[in-house]
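Researcher: Please predict.
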Amino acid sequence: FAFLPVDRDSEAYNMNHVKRGKACIFNHENFNPNLDLKPRAGTSKDRDNLYMRLRELDFDVTYFNDLTFNELNTEIIKLASEDHSEHDCVLVALMSHGDDGILYAKDQQYKPEKLWSHFTSDQCPTLAGKPKLFFIQACQGDRLDAGTTMLPRVTETDSPSAVAYKIPTHADFLIAYSTVPGFYSWRNTTNGSWFVQALCYVLSERGREDDLLSLMTTVSRIVSIGFESNTPQDS
């Protein structure tokens, strides 16, 4: 059993706990030679920027550099095993190389699900009914997106709102990738990745005003504009 921190019919999460919550940043720049992966120049800029933005939003932030898979898995299990009763949420950010369906630790590849599988409500009951946020900056393939020329149009989107009752064990997860399956994710060797740059900017400017999905929609918009200005145009 788990105690839900918000009423069943509430349209918003309870973000008034004693603490905002724990945030862990896993930053991978260098890899073992046998993996034949180039160093991820610029990723320390992402790490530092995200660390500061999350601190500004009252997260208790820890970062780790170049962990092996066993070390990373140990830290994930440790985080999931903590008592989060007084926390609003939990956040994990991962910056590394990747491919379609895989991520890389310092010494080996692994499935992305390893990052969040320990945080389901049956394994981590003190996070039941609370946001569990995962941000992944990594490629998911080697293709380039040629883009689509868009004409002005007004659109609307609808999304459903989220006594004892059951909730799915994978409820309340938000998993944000820097790119879609099969495609590159862009990183500037000086300023960091487009995705993390945009995320940090939006958290800094609107992190205390807007809801999370609105924030992520803005992040996506900023990345797409950067994409437009850096993608070769057909002649």
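Model: The longest strand covers residues 19-27.
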